[in-house]
Design the sequence.
């Protein structure tokens, strides 16, 4: 009787361990950022692109309308791909696009904007990538839709036509 | 005089370990405990990616600002989630992870005790 109980307990615990570990095997071991996190924007101070003026986040996002913070760089190929999409959003009323120039060479960045036009109302510069970390970003491009100093949507990777439709839905 | 020479050699040899490069500062300790999110299987300390380099700068900045090691972990956990830490905290997702070895140790110990020690007596 005793051995029977011992045997069944052993088998049950073995099965539990097996299923837990088996389920764990199917989890991805690559970092997947959460995109639907609604949280307050971080406080930060940043230099304005190509100048020495420093502004903080409260000054930058003070209006009541929507903001789109786009992290970009001239060396990033997907940024080039999403640029026409940002230009399409440029003339939206109720939306301001703010660029965060990530770890870039200022001459290359200027060339990039000259060649493709600038969709940005304001460009901030992030020379060593610290501001992007404050936002929880982990690469370029990455875009945040902001309203009332809260992040309402995050886009990891380049924007596409579907994201335009979604953003327009949010701001209307 | 002869002994003094030996004593000096002895002291010299056994103090060489003080000459090693001291890497145990808090900066490298913290960055070794952080996972590089874009390069698999590497810590922030080992990686030379853009992301890892930024985190290294951030850690130095936070240390200069007077933040403690734990405060830096909390800050980064808030931004990137538990995944960035190599040492997962004790919460509902990790009860099993932390308690299983302990449980197995206790059960194993009980079996050994029962089988070999109590039976012998």
Sequence:
């Amino acid at each position: 009787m005793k051995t029977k109980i011992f045997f069944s307990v052993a088998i049950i615990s073995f099965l539990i361990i097996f299923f837990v570990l088996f389920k764990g095997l199917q989890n991805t071991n690559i970092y997947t950022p959460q995109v639907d996190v609604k949280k307050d924007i971080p406080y930060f101070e940043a230099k304005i692109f190509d100048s020495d003026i420093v502004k903080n986040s409260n000054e930058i996002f003070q209006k009541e309308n929507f903001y789109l913070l786009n992290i970009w760089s001239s060396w990033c190929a997907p940024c080039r791909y999403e640029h026409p999409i940002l230009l399409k959003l440029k003339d939206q009323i109720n939306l301001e696009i703010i660029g965060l120039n990530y770890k870039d060479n200022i001459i290359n960045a200027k060339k990039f904007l000259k060649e493709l036009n600038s969709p940005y109302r304001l460009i901030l510069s992030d020379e060593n990538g610290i501001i992007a970390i404050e936002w929880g970003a982990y690469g370029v491009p990455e875009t945040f839709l902001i309203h009332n100093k809260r992040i309402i949507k995050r886009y990891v990777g380049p924007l596409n036509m579907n994201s335009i439709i979604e953003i327009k839905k949010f701001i209307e | 005089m002869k002994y003094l020479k030996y004593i000096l050699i002895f002291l010299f040899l056994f103090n060489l370990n003080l000459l090693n490069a001291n890497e145990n500062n808090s900066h490298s300790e913290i960055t070794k405990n952080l996972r590089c999110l874009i390069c698999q299987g590497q810590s922030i300390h080992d990686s030379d990616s853009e992301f890892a380099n930024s985190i290294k700068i951030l850690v130095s900045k936070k240390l200069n600002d007077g933040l403690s090691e734990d405060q830096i972990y909390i800050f980064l956990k808030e931004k990137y989630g538990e995944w960035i830490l190599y040492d997962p905290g004790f919460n509902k997702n990790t009860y099993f992870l932390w308690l299983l070895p302990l449980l197995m140790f206790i059960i194993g110990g009980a079996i050994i005790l029962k089988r070999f020690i109590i039976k012998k007596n």
